[in-house]
Hints:
Layout: H1 9-21, E1 26-29, H2 36-47, E2 50-53, H3 54-62, H4 66-73, H5 75-90, E3 95-98, H6 107-116, E4 118-123, H7 126-133, H8 147-162, E5 167-170, H9 175-189
Parallel strand pairs: 1-3, 1-4, 2-3, 4-5
Bound molecules: shikimate-3-phosphate (S3P).
Amino acid sequence: MNKTYCINFAMTSDIVQLQQNLNKPVVFVGLMGAGKTEMGQAFAKIMGWKCVDSDDVIIERAGMSIPEIFEKYGEPHFRELERQVVADLLAQEKTVISLGGGAVMQVQTAALVWEKSTSIWLNADLATLLDRTSRDDNRPLLRDGDPREILSELLEKRSPVYSKASITVDSNGSQDVVLNNIIQGLKAHLKL
Ligand code: S3P
């Protein structure tokens, strides 16, 4: 589906500044349902960059779905595939990467992300995460138990790690609002 983003005149000059000053890939981190895929695509589109979702590349390389990888080979195998994919994607220029929510919980993957990208933590509250993740059933970690409890625990456990990202952006609002938060957050980070 194609979406037209509300980009006003002031934002256009912001985007040009970001195009001139962002010299590393931009990586979106955060929990399942934080909007990483959606906002990654939106941000890549206005930047004229390509957008890649690490989960999609893993699925393509493994030739099976994420739940199938977890079921057949276990989570450690998935995390190793993820580390390899992230390392490859970080070598690409003018790229926006939407990372699976657990990627930066692996020390080696996290070290690569913090060093080789400008990273954005999309921080959403529990209600938003629950609402967005309830729309599909492709997340193995939410299948074994009450999604509210699981997401709440993950939020508590992972937030200190996500907070190491270059910037933190509130991602509870509409796409246009979050997109603007991202642009302003990056400008502040780059001191533009
Ligand atoms: C995971 C998040 C998922 C996917 C896998 C594990 C996690 O990606 O990588 O199911 O550990 O949080 P999204 O964050 O894109 O849903």
